[in-house]
Specification:
This protein is of the alpha+beta class. It is built from three helices and six strands, in the order ααββαββββ.
Length: about 150
């Protein structure tokens, strides 16, 4: 039997980590992403599709949709408290996302193999319409997610 000897005090708070990462992530801020639910195995993010997020046809650009998915599973993995980075990802686009829509990204941990963590992301509208599905692979590098700049002085 394996016993977890880590106390609740030793565990990082996922919301605090995600908020600190958001404060230091220009892409997250520029896209206007919001943290709805924070966790290391399951989380939810959202953003409003604005004119600057659209393509030639007036719907959300696929790159913006992909960026939301990547940010979502990346933040979710880093909420574990160890620095990690995207090692691979894929996306399937299922429906256009109209200008003004509120787009959600629901992240679920799918598997862990060694230092690789796999996530599934369902991107959907407020009415539940699934617009895309993504799979991301994160590589856990170790070390702190956010470093204290004061500690390096």
């Amino acid at each position: 039997m394996i016993t977890d000897t880590t106390s609740a005090v030793d565990q990082p708070d996922p919301r605090q980590l995600m908020e600190a990462m958001a404060a230091n992530n220009p892409a997250f801020r520029e896209l206007g992403v919001e943290i709805i639910e924070a966790g290391a195995q399951r989380s939810r993010f959202a953003m409003r599709v604005k004119p600057q997020h659209t393509n030639t046809f007036g719907v959300c650009h696929g790159g913006v949709t992909f960026a939301l998915a990547d940010l979502a599973f990346g933040f979710t993995c880093n909420a574990r408290g160890e620095r990690s980075m995207t090692a691979g990802a894929s996306i399937e686009y299922l429906a256009p996302i109209p200008l003004g829509a509120y787009l959600y990204a629901d992240v679920t941990e799918a598997a862990i193999k060694g230092r690789n963590v796999y996530y599934d992301v369902r991107l959907h509208l407020e009415d539940g319409t699934t617009t895309a599905i993504a799979r991301g692979r994160m590589r856990i590098l170790g070390g702190p997610v956010i470093t204290d700049p004061e500690a390096n002085s």
